[in-house]
Design a protein that fits this description.
The complex is a heterodimer. Chain A is mainly α. Chain A has two domains: 40 residues; 189 residues, Cytochrome Bc1 Complex, Chain D, domain 2 (Orthogonal Bundle), CATH 1.10.760.10. Helix content of chain A is 47%, strand content 0%. Chain B is built from 17 helices and two strands. In chain B, strands 1-2 form a two-stranded antiparallel sheet. In chain B, 56% of the residues are buried. The chains are: A mainly alpha, B mainly alpha. At the A-B interface, helix 1, helix 2, helix 3, helix 4 and helix 8 of A face helix 3, helix 4, helix 6, helix 7 and strand 1 of B. The complex binds protoporphyrin IX containing FE (HEM) (2 copies).
């Protein structure tokens, strides 16, 4: 019976193609579509902050250099992971992450809660040459980050694109994107105040690489690393220790 | 190759490459100061090379009208060579990054040479460069032979191949200069993605137009798989790459999805890239070349049907096994696990069907390294799907996820299954295409086989060991109830395995080098004998419905 039906289907190119599309579409529709509509998928966290333009630029460097190939940003709901890295990751923590950087391989440790674990100076030294800090490390040395000036003139456009995909950046933030990026590494400048006004008091405003005058790629990346896991307190309120 | 095109087609080809050149120049101009500008230059240079090739052959005598009564194999020949070049390139980079994990200072303070940028060069080079070209080249051959019809036109097969390789080139060069979306196996940015959509639509139309011309009433099983590969990859590619560019003059874009939805979409894509790129396409290859080389019909028609639809249906549910114990809702994880385990059934049906086909031809498997490549491929396919279904079980995945065990599984599949089926296929196909009796050197094929076996086994065993050790060290507790090992402890324990893997990988890498040499010498042989060898093996054994 069933072979006979199939025997007929095999004679129709278009029919066969349509059958493939239909049969293969079911799984994805069933699993993905509900994630956009079921409210419990992503917790609410009213204290959730946005990435500043500098942090966003740092995130883009993290992507560009392929840090995600060795580092995950997703602490699983397992006891040993919670003890090693901190409270397990909640969906809300990456709700503004376009794209997400959960990762699939831990050649290096998880970075979901690296923010605040080390000083800026440690991060800079580590990125400059990991083996100066951790002799056994196999992480590449990223010296060029200290040499390269950060491109800031296009940050406004980046925020606009982010807004288009759903991140609630305001017109004010977009208009001041470049200024805020420069001010975030220069706490004594007149504009530094504006960064905290727009992005919240908890925003780090300091010379990440030690030099407040130039904005380097190192500044941006370290600013990003120092904010990881710190955009909301939701996960720290969760007392569940995992399986 | 140009001599097979009519004058009109040569003119169209020049116009198309001119259009590409203009596009490249526009990108180069508009994207000044952005990496996009560099890509503009690369596109323009590529267009010039293509145009140069067409113009060089422009005044060659036009092909006779009898060309339409023969199969059109020039694109297949081109695809075979290009696939081998990508194999050598991609595996070289793979071995390079393997050494980088043992000796990290080989980055020479150059951004492009760092691990994070080179790793996607490896994955794209081997999956899309090597695997993709092999699939396109063989699909042209298979669809013509099983339909007993020539490709419907002569230019579009070239548009597909040339466009596709431009996509691969943009992808690989992009990572080196820092252009990436970071989504695994979907790293290229928006403009490269659009290019691939155009190429893929052309490819699909070409494929079904050929099928529509077929002289056989039935569509042979190999074509089902190739069709699933083409169609599903198109859907996956478009959905997962939905993104908003920062501007039309910049390479960077932001994914339309965020967080958990993005993760699910990415792994729905990622897993099915495995399913429909690395599995379905190559099953199509196996279903044609293995029975042909063995000279026996496919063992069971019924198993072909069940295997095919099972794979097409189940795979699409399985993506969430990449996200066990994460912030993805538990019900999706459980669905993914369940379907991954069920997936073993159609997978083994497909593998079993291939191995049963060899029943009665085991002496040939013993004596013929080419057939042995394909038989081993079927075995490794069975092994890696078993392993995959096992790793998809949540408690198992809690150990294997994030570790080298995944890398071991990946390479059992890609070295043992994907690469071996391709090499077996190429060693059968090359003599048929260039009309000689056999490969230039059987001994070199034999050498290649054993290098591939040794390389795969060393690689996979090293990664199983390191992966399991790593996973266990991360979760081991002292008597006092604290974690026993620091992360760096586990890192140090990996070092010997990383060296072993790099050595195994080097052996495997030697294979395609020898293979390309053997293929080129075979082509030279065919020039000397002017292609008087046997042309083609009979098609009888392959009718659908047996
Ligand atoms: C000479 C042979 C090869 C060597 C030495 C090699 C080496 C490597 C290395 C070192 C990695 C990175 C692992 C890590 O991050 O820890 C990798 C990843 C990968 N390779 Fe290969 N490879 C080889 C052949 C291939 C082939 C032929 C394919 C596919 C057709 C392939 C597909 C992949 C994929 C998909 C990944 C990513 C795995 C993941 O993210 O989980 N490799 N390879
Ligand atoms: C029944 C069939 C299969 C199942 C159920 C399966 C299952 C899995 C599982 C559970 C993972 C680990 C996910 C994680 O923990 O991150 C995985 C990873 C992977 N598998 Fe399979 N597998 C199957 C067949 C194959 C085959 C035949 C290939 C290759 C030709 C393959 C290639 C890969 C790749 C490339 C990855 C790594 C993805 C990444 O993290 O980048 N799989 N698979």
């Amino acid at each position: 019976m069933f072979t006979r039906t199939h025997y007929k289907l095999e004679r129709h190119t278009i029919g066969f193609a349509v059958a493939i599309i239909v049969v293969s579409a079911i799984g994805g529709l069933f699993e993905i579509a509900p994630l956009f509509t079921i409210d419990e998928t992503v917790e609410t966290a009213p204290d959730m902050r946005l990435y500043t333009p500098l942090e966003l630029a740092g995130r883009n460097i993290y992507i560009r250099e392929g840090c995600y190939a060795c580092h995950s940003q997703m602490i699983r709901t397992l006891r040993d992971e919670v003890e090693r890295y901190g409270p397990y990751s909640l969906a809300v923590e990456s709700k503004y992450d376009h794209p997400m950087l959960w990762g699939s391989k831990r050649t290096g440790p998880d970075l979901a809660r690296i923010g605040g674990k080390y000083s800026d100076a440690w991060q800079v030294a580590h990125l400059y040459n990991p083996r100066d800090v951790v002799p056994q490390s196999v992480m590449p040395a990223y010296r060029w980050l200290a040499r390269n000036k950060l491109r800031t003139e296009d940050l406004g456009r980046h925020l606009i694109a982010q807004r288009r995909v759903g991140v609630p950046y305001t017109d004010d933030m977009i208009a001041h994107a470049e200024q805020d990026a420069k001010a975030q590494v220069d706490p004594d400048s007149d504009n530094a105040e504006g960064v905290s006004e727009r992005y919240g008091e908890a925003t780090h405003v300091r010379a990440f690489d030690g030099n407040p005058r130039d904005v380097t790629e190192m500044d941006a990346l370290v600013a990003y690393l120092q904010i990881l896991g710190r955009l909301t307190d939701a996960a720290y309120q969760n007392k569940d220790k995992g399986e | 190759m140009i001599s097979g095109l009519t004058l009109g087609e040569r003119q169209t080809a020049v116009c198309l490459s001119l259009a590409l050149l203009v596009l490249g120049v526009i990108f180069a101009g508009a994207g000044q100061g952005d990496p996009l500008g560099v890509h503009g230059f690369i596109i323009a240079a590529y267009a010039v090379v293509v145009m140069g090739a067409v113009i060089t052959g422009y005044y060659a005598p036009a092909p006779g009208a009898d060309r339409l009564t023969q199969y059109y194999d020039d694109p297949t020949k081109f695809g075979i060579i290009v696939a081998m070049l990508w194999a050598i390139f991609g595996m070289f980079v793979g071995d390079w990054v393997a050494w980088l994990l043992a000796y990290p200072d080989m980055t020479f303070d150059a951004a492009w040479a760092s691990f994070g940028r080179l790793r996607p060069v490896h994955t794209t080079g081997v999956i899309f460069g090597f695997g993709g070209n092999a699939l396109i080249a063989t699909s042209y051959h298979v669809v013509q032979r099983t339909s007993r019809a020539r490709l419907p036109d002569q230019l579009s097969p070239w548009v597909v191949l040339i466009g596709y390789n431009l996509f691969c080139l943009l992808a690989v060069s992009g990572y080196l200069i820092g252009i990436t979306q970071s989504k695994e196996y979907a790293e290229p940015e928006w403009y490269a993605d659009i290019l691939l959509v155009i190429v893929w639509v052309t490819y699909f139309l070409l494929y079904i137009r050929t099928l529509a011309r077929r002289q056989e009433p039935h569509i042979y099983v190999a074509n089902w798989y190739y069709m699933a590969f083409i169609l599903v990859v198109a859907v996956l590619h478009i959905v997962n790459n939905l993104a908003v560019p920062v501007s039309l003059t910049e390479a960077k874009s932001y994914s339309l999805f965020a967080g958990v939805q993005d993760a699910m979409t990415q792994w729905w894509y990622g897993h099915n890239a495995v399913a429909f790129f690395l599995t379905a396409g190559f099953l199509g290859m196996m279903y044609y070349y293995l029975p042909k080389r063995a000279g026996r019909p496919i063992y069971s028609y019924r198993m072909s049907i069940v295997g095919f639809w099972g794979i097409t249906f189940f795979y699409m549910w399985a993506g969430s096994h990449h996200l066990h114990y994460t912030a993805l809702p538990l019900w999706v994880q459980n669905l993914g696990m369940t379907f991954s385990v069920m997936l073993l059934v159609p997978s083994w049906i497909a593998a079993g069907n291939a191995l049963m086909t060899l029943n009665g031809a085991w002496t040939r498997v013993r004596d013929d390294a080419t057939l042995r490549f394909m038989a081993m491929a079927a075995v490794f396919y069975g092994l890696s799907t078993f392993e995959g279904s096992f790793m998809a079980i949540r408690p198992v995945n809690s150990l294997s996820h994030y570790t080298d065990w995944t890398i071991g599984h990946v390479h059992a599949g890609t070295l043992g299954w994907v690469s071996m089926i391709v090499f077996g296929t190429f060693y059968s196909l090359v003599p048929w295409m260039w009309k000689v009796e056999r490969m230039y050197s059987r001994k070199l094929v034999e050498w290649h086989f054993w290098l591939a076996m040794a390389g795969t086994l060393i690689y996979v065993f090293a990664m199983w060991n390191s992966g399991i050790i790593q996973g266990l060290m991360w979760r081991t507790y002292n008597d006092g109830g604290t974690l026993a090992y620091s992360f760096v402890d586990s890192l140090v324990a990996m070092h010997p395995y990383y060296i072993a893997r790099a050595v195994g990988g080097f052996l495997f890498f030697l294979g395609p080098v020898i293979g390309l040499y053997n293929i080129l010498m075979t082509i030279r042989l065919s020039r000397e004998t002017a292609g008087t060898g046997i042309a083609e093996m009979p098609v009888v054994a392959l009718k659908a419905g047996e």
